[in-house]
Amino acid sequence: MDLSVTSTELTTDAAISTSASAATGASVFIPTPGTPYQEDIARYWDREARPVNLRLGDVDGLYHHHYGIGDIDRTALGDADDSTYEKKLIAELHRLESAQAELLLDHLGPIERDNTLVDAGCGRGGSMVMAHQRFGCEVEGVTLSAKQASFANRRAHELGIEDHVHARVCDMLGTPFETGQIAASWNNESSMYVDLHDLFAEHARILAAGGRYVTITGCWNPRYGQPSKWVSQINAHFECNIHSRREYLRAMADNRLVPQAVIDLTAATLPYWGLRATSPLVTGIEEAFINSYKDGSFQYLLIAADRV
């Protein structure tokens, strides 16, 4: 498929030591004010345990919280009547998930081993592990969910990379990283939980001059007029606030992030959703994604921008 460029609960009064995190999977808590909405989101993800996230991660130990891109390998799936078909289907969905993360990493630019990267909204840490495996550098993750951060740190410990990959409970709008010290940063399907101007201001603060920011996100299409009923269903399902494509580009421009690539991944993600809709891991939101992508009201984009 052509992917060419087309243009829980938030805890505020506790701190867990860094030394404990490696051994137990506990995360470092960064005290933040915490709005009621942030607390709701933290609570949502602390309680989340969807099989679609866990069973796909069990395939190879990379636990993602995003969707997939690319064509289905029908040969790998085999016959639907075969007793191993479900296992193969889950493995194929996971392959498409990891292909999405690989594409994001492809757009980070040249990364050195002594660089530090930041995954804003890191989930259970799959993309952080992939980034370290590819570049050999430090990768810091932030999430509002203590459960996710603990899972990610435990997994890093199991892989023996806890000295290089770690997650902390932290508001992505106010991270503890020093100004201008981060080589590259990203949001992978996590930017719909925050105000974009505040988010990009923080990325612009922590990134070094010339540093790269990448996001992969669903956004509503301004040409549709307003968010469609399908987009509204997605918002309600995930308790988020999906932004428009125009809002992303405007907020980047206002915060010294200059897009270098804009890739429309809408057609590339539809095979994933079609396959997932036939799987035993359906969550009930598949129809909204498929219909909104097909009617043009929703788009799946990658935007890579440089800090100037």
TrEMBL record:
Keywords recorded for this protein, A-Z: Magnesium, Methyltransferase, S-adenosyl-L-methionine, Transferase
Species whose genome carries this gene: Streptomyces malaysiensis subsp. samsunensis
Protein's job: Catalyzes the SAM-dependent methylation of geranyl diphosphate (GPP) to yield (E)-2-methylgeranyl diphosphate (2-MeGPP).
Molecular functions per Gene Ontology: magnesium ion binding; S-adenosyl-L-methionine binding; S-adenosylmethionine-dependent methyltransferase activity
EC number(s) stated in the UniProt entry for this protein: 2.1.1.255
Gene Ontology biological process: methylation; terpene metabolic process
CDD domains according to UniProt: AdoMet_MTases
Keyword Repeat: no
Matching PANTHER family: GERANYL DIPHOSPHATE 2-C-METHYLTRANSFERASE, ZGC:194242
UniProt key word Transferase: yes
Cofactor: Mg(2+)
InterPro entries noted in UniProt: Erg6_SMT_methyltransf (IPR050447), GPPMT_Stmyces (IPR049645), SAM-dependent_MTases_sf (IPR029063)
Official protein name in the record: Geranyl diphosphate 2-C-methyltransferase
One of the Pfam families matching this protein, by short name: CMAS
SUPFAM superfamilies: S-adenosyl-L-methionine-dependent methyltransferases (SSF53335)
Family as reported in the entry's similarity comment: Belongs to the geranyl diphosphate 2-C-methyltransferase family.
